[in-house]
Automatic annotation (TrEMBL):
Keyword NAD set for record: no
Domain of life: Eukaryota
Species for this entry: Penicillium digitatum (strain PHI26 / CECT 20796) (Green mold)
InterPro entries: AGP_Transferase
Protein name stated in the entry: Phosphotransferase enzyme family protein
PANTHER family noted in UniProt: AMINOGLYCOSIDE PHOSPHOTRANSFERASE DOMAIN-CONTAINING PROTEIN, AMINOGLYCOSIDE PHOSPHOTRANSFERASE-RELATED-RELATED
Biased composition (Polar residues): 112-121
Taxonomic path: Eukaryota, Fungi, Dikarya, Ascomycota, Pezizomycotina
Keywords in alphabetical order: Transferase
GO MF terms held by the record: transferase activity
Sequence segments annotated as region (Disordered): 95-121
Amino acid sequence: MIHVAQNTRVPVPKVFAYYTYGPIDRDVGDYGGLYDTYIFMSFIAGETLHTAWDSFGVSAKSQISRQIASYIQEIRNIGNVGYIGSIDHGPVTDRSLATSLDKGTKPRPWEWNTQGPLDLD
């Protein structure tokens, strides 16, 4: 988030601090890793897009979709960030990815960005 805030106009929460705690004696299969990472950031008030989406008309949904596409394009245009994945260049071991068949290691954007360019017009 710090990198995105410094290199784009994409709105992200302000990061105040972050740290990793561990190793923790626990089952990696259940928890995804031996370390927990915490991010202390500003709170952005409001309703989530997921919650509000059905209340929008077609025009608003189209405008929001274009805005999100422009944010994604801006992040893609940051340039070569090198590696994207876990800090040790191994598979990403997050519990939220437990059912995902592919957990990383894709060092080049074209290997993980399989959806192609976004049409902003």
